């Protein structure tokens, strides 16, 4: 059973006798990995040690002729003699892990409307009726937001369109993209366009536009028809049918990989992990994102009816991941998107584009959100928090031309509370190199952007997820390791003996 574990660390150089010295490391006993201690370095290298190996390593008396010694030395847990070369190598890895800080916010989210034609029980925004056009982004606001996009130093930028249902404001999407493309003729930056939508309203004109500009589209699919329609009700009770039809239509127009999907898990979802995953397989998706409920908007108000505990989610997730790995063993290639992000953090030194698992926080530093009314937020969750009446993480307005968003009071709060290495309970956690700080979630749940680790849901969830993944890594099953490596590198799985060809 996945759960939380006590953590401790040694975070300084420590003379350990004539043989070697430690470089900074943290350690933990991971549930379900009996008799082993997980040690992790500042740059995310890891090793499992027996109790005896750990005690002798910590005491500085580890046998220098052992394989364990060689492994720890190769991963720079320990050094002999002059440590300068090892420190330079560790510093290079650390710079790689934190390379997302070099370019400023690279994700820019345009909330073009709050209008929506769905009534999802877990909706995390303050949606509006389809005829309330006063909640659409104006042309003036859109142009001012574009000015903000071009202020950032990043040469590679993703522009994402959200709502509500963004297709209800498609003319604004067209105007924004065309304005960006016109301005970019002199700027020469690399733009990628994405949109999150039900896709129910898509037509041939929209598809032609998306094809022309290379859009990547994301939609919601909560599983088979009964579950999807219960979670995402529409007057005609045909949300699932319409979703499947528009997915196929969009794939036909844009290509098989132009549409991705994610599932939001309600209480009703937790008993059906195999059915949800089978639906993604049936529809030919290469990936499924098993996303728990968000503590914002309508989802927060409906928590008693559709919510669940972190422990219940982790039980579901453990069962779902085991099923996905079983399918991969049988030759059915399917990735769990969040596990892929975490595994990438564990197995490689490279950051992902996932802003919620960064330290310093990705809110504001990695992403900016332009609301329909011109208010700028540090993240989509910051915007949702503002819709609930808390403006703590509002950075400013696109209409204030001379305001420095990065110098705002909200940004100062994020910088002060968004560095996991400096947070109590995070600084000594063995999973720190792979995790991140989430001040917005902490403020929402606990009324404090720092949060209290023993009662923190973000911490409990990720401790549980990392424990599940490290249990698999400790077992080192060749099929699982091959699958995890393919998720981390985005390369095909190497077929192993006993595995069927995909």
UniProtKB/TrEMBL annotation:
It holds the Pfam family Radical_SAM. InterPro entries: Aldolase_TIM (IPR013785), Elp3/MiaA/NifB-like_rSAM (IPR006638), rSAM (IPR007197), rSAM_paired_HxsB (IPR024023), rSAM_sf (IPR058240), Sulphatase_maturase_rSAM (IPR023867). SMART domains: Elp3. Its cofactor is [4Fe-4S] cluster. GO terms for molecular function: iron-sulfur cluster binding; metal ion binding; oxidoreductase activity. The keyword S-adenosyl-L-methionine applies. The keyword Transmembrane does not apply. It comes from Azospirillum argentinense. Residues 102-333 form the Radical SAM core domain. Transmembrane segments: none annotated. NCBIfam families: rSAM_paired_1. This is Radical SAM core domain-containing protein. Gene3D superfamilies: Aldolase class I. Keywords: Iron, Iron-sulfur, Metal-binding, S-adenosyl-L-methionine.
